[in-house]
Design goal:
Length: about 300
């Protein structure tokens, strides 16, 4: 026998060099017995037997019935394909295991800080685009289209511009007075929490995230739908003009100058409008009038 031994080619698929050596010998001498192989590779019978069992378990060889048993090598192309599939399955299983280990490694209330306006905008956009089930939002205007159902609660003071109000109404949102913070939660597993100008804290599964979810659910119960039912009430053209000016952000004094009436007249008419629309604030009255198409 010559001393040349070809370089192993199956190690990347989990086959040790000695298993491959015996497999190559079997490829050269199909249907060999264990004794034949022992002579061919110059190994003791115990070592040949051990590596033959390994080849059988790897699917690189099969055993014929009868005595003495003979061994048949698997076709290399099919054998390599099977080994590659097993390797891919092992990698997938390892990735699943890594996610489990990561969950065990994560410290309670662990977080990541995102800084800078551009990085924050990009992270908010990515989070919304990666959502699979639902997006929960507190007091944040949409950044790009949302691909999954969302529930949004706005503070009354946030929707000051007419365009903001239209965007909120089209998204099917709710409003509430004094929303305590800004927040975005994706699939109830990842939260983005602005804590300062150009600073956002990103939270994964943790007790803090659980608390934020409970807060959102509580605020959702207390909030009012933007498209909810409104009470009927007669509004004159002058009332509608006054309400439109108020919705645009003008003060009573500025409205009075615009309409050519006294400020007390504006205040008195505004109280009547609030009563007619069953509203407690000018903001709420503007919303209800806008929903009915009464603003001019």
């Amino acid at each position: 026998m010559h001393s040349y031994r070809p370089a192993p080619v199956l190690e990347a698929l989990g086959v040790c060099s000695e298993d491959e050596q015996l497999y190559r010998a079997l490829l050269a001498r199909p249907e060999s017995t264990a004794t034949d192989l022992s002579v061919l590779v110059a190994w003791p019978s115990t070592k040949v037997g051990r590596h033959l069992r390994s080849l059988l378990s790897l699917g690189l060889a099969s055993r014929t019935p009868g005595r003495p048993a003979r061994y048949v090598p698997a076709v290399p192309e099919a054998a390599v394909e099977l080994l590659a599939l097993r390797k891919q399955a092992a990698i997938a299983e390892a990735r699943v295991g890594a996610s489990v280990l990561s969950a065990e490694f994560r410290q309670p209330d662990a977080f990541t800080v995102v800084r800078g306006a551009e990085a924050i905008t990009q992270r908010f956009y990515q989070a919304q685009q990666c959502a699979q089930d639902e997006v929960l939002v507190l007091n944040l205007l949409p950044i790009g289209p949302r691909r999954v159902p969302s529930r949004t609660i706005y503070d009354m003071a946030t929707l000051s511009a007419p365009g903001d109000l239209v965007a909120a109404q089209s998204a099917g949102c709710r409003i509430l007075r004094d929303v305590p913070l800004k927040l975005l939660v994706v699939d109830r597993r990842t939260a983005l929490l602005p804590t300062a100008p150009d600073v956002v804290v990103e939270l994964g599964p943790s007790s803090l995230l659980d608390a934020l979810l409970r807060l959102f659910d509580l605020l959702w119960q207390q909030s009012v739908p933007l498209t909810g039912p409104i009470a009927d009430g007669p509004l004159t053209l002058e009332d509608r003009q006054l309400l439109s000016l108020a919705a645009a952000g003008l003060t009573d004094q500025a409205i009075a100058r615009r309409l050519g009436v006294a400020q007390r007249t504006v205040e008195r008419r505004m109280q009547r409008i609030l009563k007619a629309l069953d509203a407690t604030t000018r903001f709420q009255a503007g919303l209800r009038a806008g929903q009915r198409g009464l603003l001019v």
